[in-house]
Task: structure prediction
Amino acid sequence: MPFASARHYAAAIRSGSRQVSGEDDKLWTVAIAGCGIGRAHIEGCRAHPHKFRLLALCDVDARRLAAVGEEFAIARRTTSFDEILRMDDVDIVVICTPPALHVAQTLAALAAGKDVVCEKPLAGSLAEIDRVIAAERQGPGRVLPVFQYRFGNGVRKAKRIIELALAGKPYLATVETGWRRTPEYYATVWRRRWDAALGGVLLSQAIHAHDLLTYLIGPVASVFARTATRVNAVEVEDCAVASLAMESGALASLAATLGSHKEISRLRLCFEHVTFESSLSPYAPGDDPWEIIPASPEVARHIADALAGFRATPSQFTGLMDTYHQALTTGGLLPVTLADARLSLELVTAFYSSAATGEAVTLPIGSDHPSYQGWRP
Result:
């Protein structure tokens, strides 16, 4: 049954009733499908050897499978995703395959009783992610979407200040994703095609920075976007701009390109009492250092008090897997939920719909919207 909006799902999502008593040190077993970005997930698991044990690797490219398996000393390898699902000793399946495969593989893993970690984008439409949401509710397994940039210490400090109401009302945000992708990147043919990649810079690269925007400032009310393909001879877009009105009344401007000769990711968030500026690190915008600029000495004192007990933690995949283990063993809310993934895909849907029609798109997007079934041209 489709949800009328991501907000309705967020309100309905279960808070976690699968309490697992006495298993705080439980070792969860993992299989990873896809040895590209899957390498980062291998590192995330290996950072917690007493919490996760990597049992198996899967990749359709036998050479890459062998190379990665040898590099990380993982003996169990297969080119068959179905074989992974038949492994009774595997608790968690991590899906790092091309985007067009994510929904079918997530649904199959849930049907096999597995917990699932799925790379972005989790689905190619709101209709598809609503199918995943419904399937998750039917079985024991849950789905962790991957938004690892949330676990940087810079964004964690900003989140704490905002949640304690020290920042005040948000005014304006600017988000830049200036990365570089050359023809060699698109030698992996699926990356250039709508039917396999499902989108370009808005879906495959800038989606993380845009997630941080909504994570810190809140939901989007309307979107006007333009896209273009100017950098490489591919089907999908590699340049985009968007103007957003947030539900809070704040405004945001977004720019993304794969033709930047200096790679950066940057967020600048202006609030009533403080301005936040991220680092420029292209692949770690959530990490320190973040500049926190208070409006007055009094605000500075309040912020200093709020951060006095702040404890730095490992970032990105290492931090994600640490909090994931806690949620698994207690049955608590996952650190990133399908509600978060749906909000992200709702924004993506609005981007592509606005770019295609030349009109602003109002959110939330329900099942009656022309792009609910998908945004691909």
About this structure: Residues 50 and 136 are 27 Å apart (CA to CA). Residues 3-22 have pLDDT under 50 and may be disordered.
